[in-house]
Amino acid sequence: MEGVYDGFVSRYLNRHISRPIARALTHTPLTPNQVSFISLAVAIGSFLGFVYGQYIVGALLAQASSIVDGVDGDLARAKKMTSAFGGFLDAILDRYADAIILLGLTVWAAKSVGADLEVYVWITGFLALSGSFLVTYTRARIDHVPRNFFDKGITSAASRDVRLLLIMVGALTGQGFATLIVLAVLANMVVVLRLLSARRALAGT
What we know:
- The chain is mainly α.
- It has seven helices and no strands.
- It is flat and about 55 Å long.
């Protein structure tokens, strides 16, 4: 859950799965914060899948982590347990999940190419991770404009739900390095576009 914003993938795919799961969990002792940790655990499973060469497992668990990440917010609303700390905790755990999934993807991709390309895989993985974090950071740091300023159009194209879906699709096709390239280009392009949009919007403030 990236703030209160649902990206395209969350809105039209993930929520159709996460909401029924949340409804089923409403009458259990499970708390939204515990679900946030479960989402991180699924992300760690994705990492292990990639590291041990089980890239289909890694791909599916990356997307599963994205879906479970939506359950905590749905469950919090259903149980009337929404809190500022819960949102803060979820955001922190999401960043750890992003990092560990991308690290696993990078390790797998590096093993899949020749030694002469390995260094380029690691550089691309770093750029993908940096761009992913900056996409989230730019949204968190924009001030003096509506909270949904970056939630429409091209500046929303690298939201977390989109990035994790790309990881699943790319990994399922066995294209680890290509997936990292797409993520690095897309995320950093969106960061640049957000900088330009913010410059215009914040001029004179």
